[in-house]
Write the structure tokens for this entry.
Amino acid sequence: MIDDYRREDSSKRPPPATAPRPLVTLTRMQLSEEELARYQRQIGPGVLTRDGQLRLKQATVLVTRVGGMGGPAAQMLTMAGVGRVILAHGGELISPDLNRQVLGREAGLGRPRVEQFAETLRSLNRFVEVEAIGHEPDDRQALELARRCTLIVACPPTFEERLRLNRAAFGSGIPLVDAAQWGMTGTLIVCRPGHSACLRCAYPEDPPFEELFPVVGAISSATGSLAALEAIKLISGAGQPLLGKMLVFDGFHGRVDILQLQRNPECSVCGPAANSD
Amino acid sequence: MNVRLVFTGRSYDRAQAMPEVLDLPPGCSLREALAQIDSALGDDAKLPGTALVCVGGKHLGTVASPAEHQLSEGDELVLVAPVAGG
């Protein structure tokens, strides 16, 4: 049965009239037999088409940072077969990181995070290129990186960085999946230029920064994995992304909300008079 | 009229003393409801002005700058304090 599904070619079916343009244009690149074997459980009905899997292979995703949520997000993107995963994260691994940073190991304490995290990912999937950048990108670097990417998964601890990545994504015309956490709560916001509100629409003023926020690793991992799922859907064309929505998983109260974000017509990033903030 | 009140996002623990249902006068505006909530919260539990305001799943601005909106009996008002942990 799986072989039949693998032969499915979604490009032969006309997309719905309102469907956004695919993020990845298929080239002559193919999936090898080894790759098809690796991904056979995610190619079929209710998951990805073969073309969708090929789009993942042709995609480049920036994940910054790769801590509690970015680590699981990068792990799931790597295991799913995204062609190139770029990690950006500065600093050294410290003991309190290890309640949630799944790419870290005890043996790596005191060493720079990003290279050891990249090594962990490389050991998971030889078909994926993993690139490591040992610092958080500034405005210029974020824009340069965005121009090389299909999509950004934003997992930094500050709104300054989140809003920088939002500007870079909208400045480059690519989607942004923003994942955030506090305590036992995780939030996701999925944005795509021309199709949804952006992060600045939701936060017209910069929210306060809390350096030592409380967090339980289980919510980090769940939120990071959901961010990866949204990225996979956007790139592959499978399913219905949470475009323009905010998902709030409040694990403390056992409650899930999905909120429809409103575009701000005067938004400095995605409005008609956008000046990139 | 009764409006269900939900605090979520960051610092959800600070609002545990708030009732789950607000008793508001008929025709109460969103802005008036937010003012009532603000006065009921202790000084150490104030919501940031950047907290998102949603009614019936629809985003209606922030606590500092809510949209003009009239609440109705049975509405659910969700306040999401911004979450940024990475």
Summary: Chain B touches chain A at residues 6, 8-13, 48-50, 52, 54, 57-62, 64-65, 67, 78, 80, 82-86 (CB under 8 Å). Strands of chain B lie at 2-9, 21-23, 52-55, 58-62, 76-81. The helical segments of chain B are 30-40.
